[in-house]
Input
Amino acid sequence: MEAIKEQYQKKNYEQSQNIQKFVTELASLQEEMQELLKNQHEMQTRNRQLETHLEAERSRGQQLENQCQRLEETVKHLKKSKEETEQKLKEASIESELITANLEEARRWFKARFDSLQPQLRRNRHAKTPDESSLQREVKHFFFHNFSCTEKKQTSLPIPV
Output
């Protein structure tokens, strides 16, 4: 009986050791599972943060793309405006050159007319006639016909002879 009892105690001790080993392993596995659950939760939190950040980056990218498109449209509009302005400046320059040429032509005409009427003016001064000189009449006539407010002259001025 003693042998059975010893065998029983031995088996009981072995089972106790196996159970203790199993309990220890089970506790270790539970700790490991807790750690894995904790890590999984941290990863989910991190993934949500990354998704939020990624969505913000996508939104910012879309905003930048829209802004870039608006800027490209603005540049296109500004280029068109620049071309129109340059064309208007060319036209104004041509008109200015025409006006300058007309003024120079008028100056030459006045000078030539003035020089040609100097002898008559001297005679008129000596004669002291009360009516206006022919030079004054001619100048008034020239201005009335060539620089009238109702007419817009774009061609060169005629030189009266």
In short: Residues 2-146 form one domain. The chain has two helices and no strands. Residues 15 and 119 are 151 Å apart (CA to CA).
